[in-house]
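help with this:

***
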Amino acid sequence: MKWACIFLISLSLASCSPLIQKAYFVQSPNVGAFDTAKVTNANLSGNYYSNTEFQFSHSFSDHIGVSGGALVGYQGWTSNKRQYEFDEKPGPLGTYGLNAGLIWFRKSDSRYFELTIGYGYQYNNSRIISGWLTPFGVMSGPYYSHDVHSQFHRILIQPAFLWRQKTGDKVGFVFRMELVNSPGFYYNYKLNSYYDCMNPHVQVYRDQISFYKKSFMVFSPFFFIRNSERKINIGMHVGLSLHTNVMSHFKTIDNLDPSLERNIIKGHPAMAAIVFGFDVGLDWKKMK
């Protein structure tokens, strides 16, 4: 029942948050949450609608561990064969990423702290045609299309503060800070509302942004919960994404449909503002 409630709460949050990750994917927090030395975690994390990340962590001692992850984003594998919307481009469609880090952690009976410092790389060459921004957008819009070709190098610092509950749950907050450099960024997107010939407003919005060798910062605070019973990890995370802008760019169009106007992306690189996801996996301890 507890996890059913968590799932329903997450769905309610999703109804007011973007389901499309846009140009830069805000990745799930990789938290070791170790009990002792020689503990290994292997999890599948993500919101499972747009991306999944395989996460690995291992504690070598009572204070030192490592983490790593591999991201696959599958929301943008749409080709132009069915519907011509954007120009053709080279390279495989999709989003992929790798990351690795070093963990220092400290724990007491009820409290746990860990600090991760790492590096990651992300490649996004995705295309979406008429995606819906919320679960209820499938019927009424607005609809979102984009064409992305971008690369990102990430240096991250991630402190996590957790508390162990009597139920065995580990609950707390994760604060991830990233310095990101983009060698090349291209982003072309379109918003359109449900077509209505009686609607007097402009019902289509288009924009295109590109830059090279620019850096920005991303701050992502997460609420994190994980339950580990019988070597099975089940958890969830909900967070925000706050970032500095490489550039502010948008068009002003008179008499634009209000449903489109409130979804115009003004700060770039574009990314999801609210992120939620689940974690399912295994943990095991190597006996001495």
About this structure: The longest strand covers residues 204-229. The two ends are 37 Å apart (CA to CA).
